[in-house]
Amino acid sequence: MVKKTWLKSAIQLIFVSVIVLTTISSCKVFYPNEMWRTGDEIEPALPADTVKSSYTFQSGDIFSMSVYTRKGQQLIEIFGGTGATTPTRQNISYTVRPDGKVDLPSIGTFEIKGLTKLEAKKELEEAYSQYLNDPFVLLQIENHRTFVYFGRGDATVINLPRDETNIVEVIALAGGMPSGVKAHRIRVMREIDGEMNIKLIDLSTVENWLAADLIIKPNDIIYIEPVRRVGPAFATILGEITPILSLATTLLTIYLLVTN
Predict the structure, then answer these.
(1) What are phi and psi of 29, to 5 degrees?
(2) Which class for 51: exposed (0-12), middle (13-18), buried (19 or more C-beta within 10 A)?
(3) Could you tell me which residues are beta bridge partners of residue 224?
(4) 3-class SS of residue 256
(5) DSSP class of residue 116?
(6) pLDDT digit of tens for each residue in the chain (260 aa)?
């Protein structure tokens, strides 16, 4: 009677082990390279004033600057083909220092952190007006990029072509929406004041595509959640538990043979 009770308990233990191992198939044990998991809770959205606001210069930004005289007349002559003997201004790259300032020719130290590109352009033109007649300034930020992660394993770095590039354009630049990901589960992660803010985007319908006007900013992370396929997961589980079940069965058989 005791033996039968023990045997029944052993079988129940093995059965429960199988159930437990199957249940945890969605856990990180079986998806070790899946990132940025969240539950089904409502995720915090990006603050409304940061969704479409223009980018401002930050420490570490690298930008190029060209300065022309006569309100850019020289630039028109160059591209119009009449300036064969007109010298051009070469683009030189500048890096914003940790204190938010940058060293520029003629005007020296210039505080650019916190300014939009348009604001910086106006202030620079005013500063250079002390040395040039009707200066015209062109600015181009060179290190603006975002990171796109497609589910598990695939990622790409996208250089933003302009200041206001929306999420649909970025995904297109990254190669489009691949198979094996969820178009209705796209996270845009942005660091604001030292905290990571997340916005959940649904691009599964035409209406949502048309409404997707979220402007992507430099260093934003776009993560498209992968589809968890049952087949591969079950194969992984089976491969993990087969040795355990075999060992348990062997030990149980040996015990029964010895005790009988």
Answers:
(1) -60, -35
(2) middle
(3) 150, 186
(4) helix
(5) B
(6) 555 565 556 555 655 565 555 555 445 444 444 444 555 444 445 555 455 557 789 898 999 998 888 776 665 444 444 444 444 455 688 999 999 999 999 899 999 999 999 999 999 999 999 988 889 998 988 888 899 998 767 889 998 888 788 898 999 999 888 888 888 889 999 888 788 888 888 888 877 777 667 888 888 999 998 887 655 555 566 666 677 777 777 777 776 666 66
- Residue 96's identity, in one-letter code, is V
Is 60:19 a contact under the CB 8 Å cutoff? no
Q: Quick count: other Cβ atoms within 10 Å of Cβ 104? A: 17
> What would be the CATH architecture of the domain defined by 62-141?
2-Layer Sandwich (3.30)
Sole residue written with tokens 């949502």? 208
Domains 48-53+144-226 and 62-141 share a fold: no
Q: Are 222 and 187 in contact (CB under 8 A)?
A: yes
Which residues, at least 6 apart from 219, have a Cβ–Cβ distance to it below 8 Å? 145, 146, 147, 190, 191
Which residue in 156, 199, 146 sits closest to 177, CA to CA? 156
Domain 48-53+144-226: which topology? Outer membrane lipoprotein wza fold like (3.10.560)
Phi then psi for residue 207, to 5 deg, are -60, -40
Instruction: Identify the burial level of 73 via C-beta atoms within 10 angstroms of its C-beta, where 0-12 means exposed, 13-18 middle and 19 or more buried.
Output: middle
